[in-house]
Amino acid sequence: MLSRLSRPKAVAICALPVVALLATAVFAPLPFAVAQPGMTANVLGENKGAPVITISGAPMRTTSGQLRMTTIEATGPDASVSLGDVIDGWFRTDRAVLPRDAVYPSGNSVQEIEQHNAQQMQQSQDAASRAALKYLHVSEKDVKVTLKLADVGGPSAGLLFTLGIIDKLDGDGAGGDLTGGRTVAGTGTIDAAGDVGAVGGVALKVQAARRDGASVFLVPKEECTDARAELPKGLRLVPVTTLNEAVESLVALEKGKSVPSC
């Protein structure tokens, strides 16, 4: 014999599967990473008690000002990111939700990803040294550059490493500092020919830069739009595509001349 349920009870019973599905969606891990502004480091100074740039075979200048490389911090490759985390990240200006595969190579273990990032950092440092010495017309046989930056991986510090080496060896080329005494931050890959490449995460990196006192930010030109999206007040964006442009812009700023902006 069948009995009828009251309307409230029927609605409650029908709603149970929906509630269960929503609960599962909220707490189920999703293929995303949540990123936020990370640490910055002055490549002209020390990082964790050790000089970032060490040069032998040529005298090193005493510099003023700072050249700060910038980073983002993202949830780990094995971290569980829920729908709640994603929604929260989308509505915050100091967070970014990214496909996990855009941050970490798909299918790799945590150890393999760490090795990949370390390899990219080493390649970036090698390219930075070659690009800087080539710019200064200095032979790699005569001058050895050692770069050391703890707990940072990937290639995005290449441009700032290169500028740091140039500032340590030659400054602005006329006895002054390449920074003009300012705190300059930036991001961008570099190759041995001095070409600057995009890196991603610039909307978060500009926030990290301003937080740590930068007034100028060097950004790969193709990422100007992203950098402007959450640009903090008091931070000037200077677009660059080559090492020559970056140096020329910094020297122009030092002399009070106009420079390109995003």
From TrEMBL:
Residues 153-249 form the Lon proteolytic domain. GO terms for biological process: proteolysis. GO terms for molecular function: peptidase activity. Keywords: Hydrolase, Protease, Signal. Residues 1-35 form the signal peptide. InterPro entries: Lon_proteolytic, Lon_Prtase, Ribosomal_Su5_D2-typ_SF, Ribsml_uS5_D2-typ_fold_subgr. Its EC number is 3.4.21.-. This is S16 family serine protease. It comes from Streptomyces gibsoniae.
